């Protein structure tokens, strides 16, 4: 079975990554790459490194609904508005529907069976993806507190967000980042979450500090616990060394490693490409699951 898809917000960073993946997906045809601001332009007019012969368009709601699936790579308000008019499968990369009971939270590693059955899938946030995957295998253990120290490339703010990122690291949203409640859904213990923007275009690392009664014998088993937990998950890989941007950028999955113990706490590092497992490749992973394709189809 082959399917037709529409990408709304196709000229943004996330939308462009979707185009690059789906243009080479053997079971997908991009019917519409919607962008009001770039309507009529070719992709290589906006992204000079692209060689795809695809033109941005501005399809009607009826044309969008003729597709088998629609990706929403739009700002939150726009995604919420257009979603009410769409009558086909929706995969929303925005934050608009992550707490909507009509939508399945699209983290495949925890909701695969629900994703298969739903026409409404809300992609998780990039920080939430790295944090949840990084802590999930031991979330039920005796942990007293967790600190998520997160660093992201500036592409996470979108094309319209301007940061003074040259020679700089910028902490922001110290108390109330909008993705913190996503992590809270899966943790029943106190935690802190502090995101930073760094001088890099893409990539995301969550350095996770775990505090509690941690015995050496438990720590020795930790890497094996993670490997066993994720052994059937094709886009999560456990490594002994410390993940960094160079190991995950332009890769569709998550790397977890750097297991370290110091006195009363453990450190674990979870790393993703914020534009891929934090957005586009995760959305395609969800599409693959929904339509019965191989989970990694089209994801190199």
In short:
By secondary structure, the protein is of the alpha/beta class.
Q: Looking across the biggest beta sheet, what order are the strands in?
A: 8-9-7-10-13-12-11
The radius of gyration computed from the alpha-carbon positions, rounded to a whole number of angstroms, is 19 Å
Count of individual domains: 2
Q: What is the C-level CATH assignment of the largest domain? A: Alpha Beta
Q: Sum up the overall morphology in one term.
A: globular
Name of the CATH homologous superfamily of the largest domain = Dihydrodipicolinate Reductase, domain 2
Number of strand segments: 13
Low-confidence stretches: none
Secondary-structure element pattern, one letter each: EHEHHEHEEHEHEEHEEHHEHEEH
Residue-averaged pLDDT, rounded? Answer: 92
Fraction in beta strands: 15-25%
Instruction: Note the total helix count.
Output: 11
For this structure, the CATH topology of the largest domain is: Dihydrodipicolinate Reductase, domain 2
Terminal Cα span: 20 Å
Largest sheet: 7 strands, mixed
CATH architecture type of the largest domain:
2-Layer Sandwich
């Amino acid at each position: 079975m082959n399917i037709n898809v529409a990408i709304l917000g196709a000229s943004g960073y996330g939308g462009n990554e979707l185009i690059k993946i789906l243009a080479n997906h053997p079971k997908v045809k991009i019917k519409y790459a919607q962008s009001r601001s770039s309507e009529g332009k070719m992709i290589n007019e906006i992204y000079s490194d692209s060689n795809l012969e695809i033109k941005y368009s501005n399809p009607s709601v009826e044309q969008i609904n003729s597709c088998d699936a629609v990706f929403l790579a739009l700002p939150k308000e726009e995604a919420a508005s257009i979603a009410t008019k769409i009558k086909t499968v929706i995969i929303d990369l925005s934050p608009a529907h992550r707490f909507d009971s009509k939508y399945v939270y699209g983290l495949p590693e925890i909701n695969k069976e629900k994703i298969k059955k739903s026409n409404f899938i809300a992609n998780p946030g990039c920080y939430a993806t790295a944090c949840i995957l990084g802590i999930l295998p031991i979330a039920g253990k005796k942990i007293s507190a967790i600190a998520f120290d997160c660093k992201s490339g500036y592409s996470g703010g979108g094309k319209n967000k301007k940061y003074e990122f040259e020679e700089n690291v910028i902490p922001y949203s110290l108390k109330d980042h909008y993705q913190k409640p996503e992590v809270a859904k899966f943790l029943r213990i106190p935690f802190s979450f502090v995101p930073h923007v760094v001088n890099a275009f893409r990539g995301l690392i969550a350095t996770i500090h775990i505090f509690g009664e941690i015995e050496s014998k438990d720590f020795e088993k930790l890497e094996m616990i993670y490997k066993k937990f994720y052994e059937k998950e094709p886009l999560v890989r456990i490594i002994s060394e410390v993940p960094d941007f160079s190991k995950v950028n332009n890769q569709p999955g998550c790397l977890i490693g750097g297991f370290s113990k110091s006195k009363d706490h453990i450190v674990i590092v979870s790393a993703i490409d914020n534009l891929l497992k934090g957005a586009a490749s995760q959305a395609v992973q969800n599409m693959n699951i929904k339509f019965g394709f191989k989970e990694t189809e089209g994801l190199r």
